[in-house]
Amino acid sequence: xxxxxxxxxxxxxxxxxxxxxxxxxxxxxxxxxxxxxxxxxxxxxxxxxxxxxxxxxxxxxxxxxxxxxxxxxxxxxxxxxxxxxxxxxxxxxxxxxxxxxxxxxxxxxxxxxxxxxxxx
Length: 120
What we know:
This protein is mainly beta and 120 residues long. 0% of the residues lie in helices and 60% in strands.
């Protein structure tokens, strides 16, 4: 079994910055893609950013140039620096990871989410 634990988030004013982190623990052989998704009230969950094990990144158009995803493969941790935050970035942010376990099976896991609120 694998657990993803997020930290960071909170309340910030329009134009401010926040940092998120997420650490995977448990029965892990390797981690492929790691990502952040978000879900605003009344909306579907959406992909924010992804990063491969080799460091290739992709971003939703709405956050390009403002958010930066990174990872530490030794610590099984993914980070996201969020700058120039806007009220429309308010959402619960979820960590996601594709993990190969000790049984050699590949599974996707989600964190429980962390709230990010941007006040205008």
